[in-house]
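Objective 1.3, modelling of assemblies. Example input:
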Amino acid sequence: MVEHTVAVDGQGRAPELVDGPGWSRPGLDVAAGRYPLSVERHVMRMVDHLVPGVTAVTPHARYYALHGLIAAQAAAEDLTVPAAQTLLRRSEVALAAVSFAHHPQALEWLPRAHGVDALARRLHAGTVTMSEAEVPGKDGYVRNSWGFWGPYAGSEITLGILGTGPLPVPGPRLDTATLRAGLGGLLQLAAEDTLNVDDLASFGDRLCVCVGGERPDGAWLANLLCEPDAQAGQGARSTTRRQTIQLLTRVVATHPVRRFTRDIGHVLAFGDFLTTDAVTSGIDAAGAWRGVVLRNYSVGAWRRLWSWLVEQVDGLLPIEEVADRFAAELPDMTVDAFLSSLPATQSTTGAPLPAEHDLRWAGDPLPLRELRVLAAGARRVDELSGRVRDAFLGRRGVELGPEWVQRRLDEARPMKLRDVARRLTYDLVARSQRIALAKARRRTDGTLWLPTRLHERGGLLYRTSQEGRGDVGLRLDQLGTVLATCGVLHYDDQHWSVTRSGRALVD
Ligand SMILES: [Zn+2]
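Predicted structure (tokens):
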């Protein structure tokens, strides 16, 4: 069984499913047809609220610092936009090359520096010609003329590193002297005509993406992210971010954590640690996290189920045939019996039990498995309370939400599960076509363009490509690696821990 949490690739390209207005351009999700059932919005909004300053495409602390340094340099030298772009791109090429020289093999705990994959041929050959590598386009390290600033820009503004402007401009929290002390060497390398990989190795322990935690720029960023001196009323967003970091570091300090989303997400969703632990029980955001991680199981279930249905459509297929294939994957039982067969979702003390997690590992065929995950989520509607429930439900009365599933299953108790699945197939196809139509655009030649991979014509379905089934990212992986590369967390022997300086910032 493969469950992808969609991560950023080495070039920092948009992952299959990205999460946030922080970086996404309006219409990007439309263009990719990425949200065919439109069930992701609530989780994406909540994550954006809970992790301000980090997105699904910002895994590296040192890019925050580098872009700040570029802003300072551009201001000091009164650079034009093209000149600032060139300086930024050359510096990012230098950062990629130094990082490759420091560890030619990818690290287990950190994505590669942005652009390393695109530069791989040159890096392995040992020489990077700056004037070629920095040119945006298919032969350069990046396609965008602003390099990898785009993915980070919103976060850098949120954190006060940058102000808003047509180029990176210093924000209120920028500390030029510190950034120069940490990353000034990159500006010197950026001025070189040629970078020789062997010669760069000696810069690795100062300038690599992996060593920010031991450098002045890392300490500076850690302080911005954790806000240890935050005054009450300094802003809801920084308060929430601090709470999320406190939560993450507390789980890391008390549990074996190797992968952030997988291992921390489990503690956030299930069990009684959040309410019994002396630290986490005092963190307001904990309840919202619990609700949103639980809800994400349902969102992921819809995405997997839909992807499976679309996969069935090979060639032109009547919708009845797809509905029958869905039904054939399910046991011959009533909905009532199906609901009774679900594992317990709550302990005797009221703590959520890991039903959805266990169901995903139980080995049932995908449609049955994900239907059971949805039913487990529906049962939580009456079990959760307070902030957890609010964060779990989101906006009320929404189609395909947990309450909707609960009502549908409850009404169908005497019916056969297979018949419910057939009806659901029609509902989902209708919904996907409605959503695609709502996002449709008129092409310049006058024809209608529909952002969907599944099309219907006269009761026959056909698909143009496969549908994604990755989970909505909770940004815990990115927050984790940003914290690691600014010195709050440390990875050793397949295990994360909180550093001494990290503890001082969050306690
Ligand atoms: Zn390194």
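The CA atoms of residues 91 and 190 lie 5 Å apart.
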